């Protein structure tokens, strides 16, 4: 499986990756997509393009529009472990993503001169954030933003701050007596 990184952030990312892998093994498209991102970026593991692509395909086959759009992009560019460009396969995946309302897929199809039927009704409200999405944000996105911000000498946005590194901030107003 993935190798353990020496930092506490690395261990947290590894734990999150293990959770995503468990869900992906049960057929969860969101879990597979998160695994793909972790393996592609090396979050909680060594970078592994083959595993990233395998999990991305699983998520796309599971009907996740952002995975379908990402896979279409890889086919259109021949990147990310895809052997050569395949515009027909890219278009197929973008059509599937666009049918579910993925704006990026709609835009890319329109740029290629392909008409995309608009939905008659507004898209459904976004689903409640799953535990996997929250784990991904907490253990992968936030700590990475904090680390990169510190490397660049700046401070990360407060909504991405690592709660383990920041002192608690009181939301109560301060009064002098």
TrEMBL record:
Residues 157-177 are annotated as: Disordered. Pfam families: Sel1 (PF08238). InterPro entries: Mitotic_Regulator, Sel1-like, TPR-like_helical_dom_sf. This is Sel1 repeat family protein.
